[in-house]
Amino acid sequence: MILSALYDYYERCKETLPPFQRAYVKFKYAILIDEKGKYKGLEGLGDEEGITLLTYRPEERTSAPVPHCFGDNGSYVLGLKDIKPEKTVNLAIELKKNKKNYEAFVKDVETIYKALPHNKYAKAVYLFYQHYDQIVIDQMKDDVNWSGLCKSLNKNITFRIYGDRSVAATDEELIKYKLDNSINANVPMLCLVTGKKVKPVDTTYSTFILGSKSNAKLVSFQVSSGYDSYGKKMGLNAPISEDAEFKYTTSLLSMLSKKSRNKFMVGSRTFLFWASKNDEAGKEAEESVFSMFGFSEKDDDPNKNIEQVRKVFTAIYSGEMKTTSEDKFYILGLAPNSARIAVVYWAEIPLREFAGTICKHFEDMEVVDTRLEKKPYMSLRNILSTVTLGGKVSDATPNLPDAVVKSIFQGIPYPQTLFASCIRRIRAESGDKDKNAVHITRAAIIKAYLNRIDNNQKINVMLDKDNTNQGYLCGRLFAVLDKIQEEANNQHSIRERYMNSASSTPAAVFSTILNLSNHHVENLKNEGRKVFFEKLKQEIISKIDADGFKAQLDLQDQGRFFIGYYHQRQDFFSKNEDNNNE
């Protein structure tokens, strides 16, 4: 199913992806030669990273040397490795060190030249190696690009005939020869991806992800390790055609590329996502998921595109943006696992249903916002950073980011770890006069968590005067006492000293802070405010249980305490309340 979806992605995007057995490869330098193979100079290609060129897909290497098509690293092309530009280079010694790689490359050039003697690049490069000696190396040392070349010998080098615009590695005739002469001696079998009877591959191409080995693969096979059956080895156990293997690995590599907008990283997890169609809804959904999850620690405002994300998914879910029942959205979660890549998450969801799930996340996270610049829709980075000590996503509890993502994608309850971490950060910061411990993001997290686990005590977006939950009422009352002290003395010592105990053991502290509040009320200069606050206190206290304040609040009601506190504080800033109190 995963491979089939990746195969379909290639078919959908094939105009922007490399054709069969080709790949976009970076090259850093070109050796300039004339048509007789005589050395003419060195040329830097592109920027610091080099230039990306469409060439024959590099064959993968194990222990044996495997030369690439008329372009490779310095040990293959020049027999040079780990050279210091200021020191003398003895070519004979260097060729001896890199004998296997160098000879394999030269042999490949010779083989292709004999097959295509008329090809100008095959001939020129072949003749270059007939002339390649210490004199050529000494000429290279005089080139202004020598120092850069020595520092980039681990990067790809190719050849250019002096005066030409193209390079040897992109010559179509040379690539076609490599394609036509690739060896696959397997007997045709039924491909598990396409259903066609064709020759299967023995191994699949590497698709590196962060944290994995460079040769890590999504699909891999071992020899003589219990995976062989009925005499079939490696890929023959689960036959995949060359065409299917190329297309699904190319899709993976494209989505895993550095500038891809079809991936995001969460901890050690790499998530890929794509739509089944290339229409407006599919493109907008992909871009919106990237905006919502594809954050960077360098972003100044992780919420800047979140409102647009909400609008897109609302349009898809409502039918304003047209979709069909055939439109799907795919999400693939990958993690490094030894020499393989482990699939840790996979979802194939109708696009409209997926949009509805994302809309539900926004609905659950929505909470009253009295800021001038309202941004109530939280990005993943914002959610995770607000529950960590240093405010960095990288400091989040292991597996928490992964669990939050799954909650959003599947519409299931948010992880208890997220809720507990949020409460813990509020407690840690409540005594700090310079910090607002119960801010909008934390209030949104608490509301969203509680609403998904308890349908009987739904928390509203804004102040709910009909909510009689004891934790919520204690939070409201505490906010009133805090506000009285703020207006009377411009202080928050009640909040700094008593918030933690009031939210967990209200019976132990509320009698004390209510007495303190009576003194603070006396310091209010506006008689109207005195009456307003006394009425508000009595309104809330009248709803407290007849037995008085609870001796202890469980963790969920502690969360409701902080929501009650947040709602009441925000209500003080609302225009309607201000108008009523004038």
Textual characterization of the structure:
- It is a single chain.
- This protein is an alpha+beta fold and 582 residues long.
- Helix content is 46%, strand content 11%.
- It contains 22 helices and twelve strands.
- The protein has helices at 2-13, 74-77, 91-97, 99-115, 120-131, 134-141, 146-151, 172-180, 242-256, 280-293, 306-318, 351-365, 380-385, 400-410, 416-429, 440-453, 470-489, 493-504, 506-522, 527-541, 555-573, 575-581; strands at residues 22-27, 29-33, 39-44, 51-56, 71-72, 157-161, 189-190, 197-198, 263-266, 269-275, 328-337, 340-350.
- The strands form four sheets. A four-stranded mixed beta sheet has the order 3-2-6-5. It has a four-stranded antiparallel beta sheet with strand order 9-10-11-12. The protein has a two-stranded antiparallel ribbon with strand order 1-4.
- A hairpin with a 2-residue loop joins strand 9 and strand 10.
How would you sum up the major sheet? 4 strands, mixed
Strand order of the largest sheet: 3-2-6-5
Spatial separation of the terminal alpha carbons: 65 Å
State the share of residues found in helices, binned by percent: 40-55%
